[in-house]
Specification:
265 residues; 4-stranded mixed sheet; Phenylalanine Hydroxylase; two-stranded parallel sheet; 12 helices
Length: 265
């Protein structure tokens, strides 16, 4: 998770404000204009309700401080700028303290359609709407707390629960599949793919199965887990997640349904 990024983090000034150029504001404007119709069509109600609470600006990159002000009043969370990629240990600690780590840069026009590492658009538009809901915020904090008790060898197992729920989870609303995950909310292509494609594998939500399922970050997910009721996710926060990790480890990983990622030469 702490691999090298092609982007440099932006550092807040003395007043806590991050400076973005006019071109960077324009990228945000165009990203949000493109993605709003998609989330209104395919995203789940908890995400859409959270997006409404935040009232994000459409013409400029929001400052983390202004987003934090809304979150603090609703769930006690705040957003803190970080480099693009941080280690699992720091990530879990920040979640446990109700601090959401947000990459401070925004993608270039070259990466407008797809960027491997998270940028401020993914972090704010994708993640923070769910953090306005105390239930989802509590689930993220529970994963962080489990991570504090985990050993480094457990980190890749535990993060799968976050990946297949908060990042790429699906749920069923009124009999229809809807996207819940933040990685889906910020993706113009994977959002409709996850909900409508007959080629996507959609499996029932099961904590142990999720912990045993490998994934890649650079492709559309071939497998998604579907919550029949979002309360099932919050019930998972009450489990002994570290015991679940050890259970999954004893059973081993499922075989991947995708080709291994190619290493750079």
């Amino acid at each position: 998770m702490s691999k090298k990024s092609a982007y440099e983090a932006k550092t807040p000034g003395p007043d806590g404000t991050i400076h973005y150029t006019g071109a960077e504001h324009a990228v945000w404007r165009d990203l949000i204009a493109r993605q709003l119709p998609n989330v209104r069509k395919f995203a789940a109600e908890p995400y859409l309700e959270g997006l409404g609470r935040l009232a994000l600006p459409g013409d400029r990159v929001p400052q983390t401080a202004e987003v934090s002000e809304v979150l603090r009043g609703l769930t006690g969370w705040r957003v803190e700028p970080v480099p693009a990629l941080i280690g699992f240990g720091r990530f879990f600690r920040m979640l446990s303290e109700r601090r959401f780590p947000a990459a401070s840069f925004i993608r270039s026009r070259r990466d407008f359609d797809y960027i491997k590492e998270p940028d401020i658009f993914h972090e704010i538009f994708g993640h923070t709407p769910l953090l306005t809901d105390p239930r989802f915020a509590g689930f993220s904090q529970a994963i962080g707390a489990a991570g504090l008790r985990a050993e480094p060898k457990d980190y890749p197992w535990l993060i799968r629960l976050y990946w297949f729920t908060i990042e790429f989870g699906l749920t069923r609303e009124k009999g229809q599949i809807r996207a819940l995950g933040s990685g889906l909310a910020s993706s113009p292509t994977e959002l409709p793919w996850s909900v409508t494609s007959p080629d996507a594998i959609r499996r029932p939500f099961d904590v142990i199965d999720i912990l045993r399922t490998p994934y890649r970050i650079d492709i559309h997910q071939p497998i998604y887990f579907v919550l029949e009721c979002v309360d099932d996710l919050f019930a998972a926060a009450e489990r002994d997640l570290l015991a679940d990790v050890h259970d999954a480890q004893s059973r081993g990983l499922f075989g991947p349904v995708f080709e291994p990622a190619r290493k750079a030469s």
